[in-house]
Amino acid sequence: MVRAAGIGAVTLLAAAIGAAGCGSSGSGGTAGTSGSAGTSGSAGTTGHAGSTGSAGSTGSGGASGYIPPCTALVPTAALITNFSASGFGVYDGMALSGSTFVYPNPPVTETYGTAWNVTGTIAGYSGMGAGFQCGGANSGTMDPGIANLSAYSGVQFDISGTFTAAGTGDGGIPATGVTFSIGTAPDDVASQYRSNFNANDATTWSYGTCVPASSQYDGTCAAPNKVITFTSTPQTIKIMWSDLTGGKPKPLDPTKITNFAWAFPWNGTGSAQYTVNVTISNLTLF
DSSP character for 197? Predict the structure, then answer.
């Protein structure tokens, strides 16, 4: 960021000068008359104050150059979504609203109703999540959203599922479980460093302020997370904000939450592929 320097005020002041006349006495004569006092010099005029320089604009290369235009959403109820559809909430720019996502991309099958069910074969780094969005009914766009959930202590959800061998790759399939993480502005990658960034499209911008050392995926920026296990029988998982660790460069900030995500286990290229059938419901604050 470049900022123009202000110019300090300068004051010019002339000193007043007094001049006095001098009398003399004659020898045996009468006393001489006193000289008249000199006139005082006029004070100098005060100089004009210098103008203050204008602040420099934020450069496009900075971490905060492209922030979505939405203000922080605040929940009006504990329930975030029961996954009756891929989107949730009222898109009025004030209440919690958002949509689900999977990555990197399908092949997966998603169904909704009273829960969110995801099936597919894991053959790389993959996961699912629910991200906040905002935008009024007449805004024409759905920009990324951010939520202030600090009035609550944590989040809970019901989860169940199975992993089965897909017959490809080396090693055994992992135990049923996911790494649950919460995205926050301090730990999210800044807009300009994200792979989908488009300066002319606010829907690709991020609230993130983390600048990676070399790339979006180098580990410099990381969401606070916790590994959880589950079974084929639905169970409720309660997670306090303080239960999540590993946030980089900051610990979890519940006033600046951008998404919830569930990442499937993967040991890298050549690992055994496996098929997941996972159901999540009742994403709720407590």
Answer: -
